[in-house]
Design brief:
About 30% of the residues lie in helices and about 25% in strands. The protein is α/β, with parallel strands linked by helices. The radius of gyration is 23 Å and the shape is globular.
Length: about 500
C-alpha cells in the first residue's frame, strides 16, 4: 500500500506499508506495479487511535439492543414505544443506556406498565444495574428464594420486605449471562467496523470478568477476520496463563471497586502483590471520592508499579492527584462524559464535587500520565467527541462544566496515542502538535488518514473527517469521498 501526499508530522510526504509495517516515508515515492495507492490530498496521517478503556463484547451486544436513554429516548412514552416495537431475541428483549431522566427509577412494576408481555431486561447507562419486568423475573424463577435457580442467593438481587425480587439486579452481568437462554452471538464484525470508522485501530478492553475463555474468543475473532484491531485485555487473575502476542496482549488485573461493598483492604493488598509478581499492573474502577482514595491507599500499602492505573477517576480531589503523582500511578478517564452526561451532573452532583469531575488539565499539570477512553458502550464510541469535550468542557446543552480543565486540541489528540500508557515512555505530558503523534519506520502500519490538514482539523475535531483506516497495512475503512479517492486495487470499506 502506498499513501500519496499525506501530511505526516507537519510535512507533505508519501508512505509505503509492507508486511504490516511502515517501510518507507519520503517525498515522491515511486509506485510499484500492482501496488494499491491511496491519494491523501494533503490530509493528516496519524497513527491509528487507541481507545484506552472500552468493553468490546458489550458494545457488540448493545448494537443489537434497544436504546433506552438519552439522547435517543427522552421520555417514558418514547421508552414504551421503543420497547414494544422491538423484536424479541431468544424470547427476550434487551435494552441499554437507561437513565432516570427518562422515566424515573425503574423496578418490575414500572417495567410492567411499560412493556409487560415479554421478558425484558434493561441495563442502566452506568453498567452497574439491570432492571427486569415480572415476565423476566418469572423466567429466571427469582421470586422464591428457595427455588433451585435462586438457591445460590446471589447478593445482587434486590428484594422487598416480603422477599420478592424488585426487578433490580446489581453487578449481575456474569450471573445473568449464565442463566439466560442461549441467543445468537453478538456481531463482533459490526462493532469492530464501528470502531474503525472513527479511527480506532487498537483498544484496551477493561471488562473485569475477562478470563481465559474470553481471551480465546478475542483471539478467534482476530484470526477469522471479524476483529482487525489490536487488543489489550484486562481481566481476572486467570489471564496470567494466556500467551500474549502482537495482536492480543494481556494487560492489568482489573479490580471493580463499589463504594457500598468495598473489598477487605488486606486481602486486596495481597492480590495486588500477586499481580505485580506475575508482571501485571493493577487497574481500579473508581468513580467516587471514597473509591479513588481506597484504590490509592491499597496501592500505597502494596507498593505501586508503573503499570498500575486508575480507571475513570470520575471524581478526583486534588489530594488524590498529588498521591497519584507521588506513586507514579497512571490514569485513564472519559472526558466525553462531561459532554454526554454533563447536564445531568450539573443538576444532580453535589456542588463540592463538580470541580473534581473528569479532570483533564489538572492531571496533566501534575505530570501524571493520563490517557483517555470512551467506556463504550456506556459512553459513545467516538474518541473525537471525547477530544472535543476535553477541549470545550461543555455539556450537550452548551453549559460549561469544569472550564478550568480545558486542554488544547493537540493534547486531546495525544490522549488516544497507542503508546500513551507505555511505562517505558516519558511521563512528560507536553504535546507539541501532531508531530508528537508522528510515524516511525518499522512501526505497525495501523494508520488513520484524515481528510484535511491538522491546522483545519484542530478547529473541528470530528470523526466525520476520518477518511481511511488501516490495520497492519490493510484497509479496513474508507469513506471514499471528498478529498479521498481510490486508485489501483483500493476499494471502499
Amino acid at each position: 500500500m502506498l499513501i500519496r501526499d499525506a501530511e505526516i508530522a507537519g510535512r507533505r510526504l508519501d508512505l509505503r506499508c509492507e508486511a504490516g509495517r511502515v517501510r518507507e516515508i519520503g517525498p515522491d515515492l515511486p509506485r510499484r506495479a500492482g501496488e494499491a495507492c491511496l491519494a491523501a490530498g494533503g490530509g493528516a496521517l496519524v497513527p491509528g487511535l487507541h481507545d484506552h478503556h472500552l468493553h468490546f463484547f458489550a458494545l457488540a451486544a448493545a448494537l443489537a439492543s434497544i436504546p433506552c436513554g438519552p439522547p435517543q429516548v427522552a421520555s417514558a412514552e418514547a421508552l414504551a414505544r421503543a420497547l414494544r416495537a422491538a423484536p424479541a431475541r431468544a424470547g427476550w428483549r434487551r435494552g441499554t443506556g437507561y437513565f432516570e431522566s427518562v422515566a424515573g427509577p425503574l423496578d418490575r412494576l414500572r417495567l410492567d406498565a411499560l412493556a409487560p408481555e415479554i421478558p425484558l431486561r434493561i441495563q442502566h447507562r452506568s453498567g452497574v444495574m439491570w432492571f427486569l419486568n415480572s415476565a423476566a423475573i418469572a423466567a429466571l424463577d427469582l421470586d422464591d428464594p428457595a427455588t433451585p435457580r435462586a438457591a445460590a442467593r446471589f447478593p445482587g438481587i434486590e428484594r422487598d420486605a416480603a422477599g420478592r425480587a424488585t426487578g433490580r439486579l446489581f453487578r449481575a452481568d456474569t450471573w445473568l449471562r449464565e442463566r439466560l437462554p442461549r441467543a445468537e452471538p453478538p456481531d463482533l464484525h459490526s462493532a469492530a467496523q464501528q470502531l474503525a470508522q472513527v479511527g480506532i485501530t487498537s483498544f484496551t478492553d477493561a471488562t473485569p470478568s475477562n478470563d481465559l475463555a474470553q481471551a480465546r474468543r478475542f483471539r478467534a475473532a482476530q484470526q477469522d477476520g471479524r476483529l482487525p484491531q489490536r487488543v489489550r485485555l484486562m481481566g481476572d487473575a486467570s489471564l496470567v496463563a494466556f500467551e500474549s502476542d502482537e495482536r492480543l496482549a494481556i494487560d492489568a488485573r482489573k479490580f471493580l471497586l463499589d463504594e457500598p461493598a468495598l473489598p477487605d483492604l488486606e486481602a486486596l493488598i495481597d492480590e495486588i502483590a500477586v499481580a505485580h509478581r506475575a508482571g501485571r499492573g493493577c487497574a481500579f474502577h473508581c468513580v467516587t471520592r471514597v473509591e479513588i482514595h481506597f484504590a490509592l491507599a491499597a496501592l500505597e500499602a502494596a507498593g505501586a508499579s508503573p503499570r498500575d492505573r486508575l480507571e475513570h477517576a470520575s471524581i478526583a480531589p486534588l489530594e488524590a492527584i498529588e498521591q497519584a503523582k507521588r506513586l507514579g500511578v497512571r490514569v485513564v478517564t472519559q472526558p466525553n462524559f462531561a459532554y454526554e452526561r454533563g447536564d445531568d451532573y450539573l443538576r444532580e452532583v453535589d456542588a463540592r464535587d463538580r470541580g473534581d469531575l473528569y479532570r483533564v488539565r489538572s492531571w496533566l499539570a501534575a505530570d501524571v500520565t493520563l490517557a483517555a477512553g470512551t467506556d463504550a458502550p456506556h459512553g459513545e464510541a467516538d474518541p473525537w467527541r471525547a477530544m472535543r469535550a476535553a477541549v470545550s468542557r461543555e455539556t450537550r446543552s452548551g453549559e460549561p462544566i469544569g472550564p478550568e480543565e480545558r486542554i488544547t486540541p493537540e493534547e486531546a489528540l495525544a490522549l488516544f496515542a497507542p503508546e500513551r500508557l507505555d511505562p517505558r515512555a516519558s511521563r512528560s505530558t507536553a504535546a507539541a502538535g501532531p508531530a508528537r503523534f508522528g510515524i516511525a519506520l518499522g512501526q505497525a502500519a495501523d494508520l488513520c488518514l484524515l481528510d484535511r490538514p491538522w491546522r483545519e482539523l484542530r478547529e473541528d475535531l470530528s470523526s466525520d473527517h476520518v477518511a481511511a483506516v488501516l490495520c497492519a497495512g490493510q484497509l479496513v475503512f474508507s469513506r471514499a469521498e471528498g478529498s479521498l479517492r481510490a486508485e489501483g486495487s483500493l476499494r471502499a470499506g
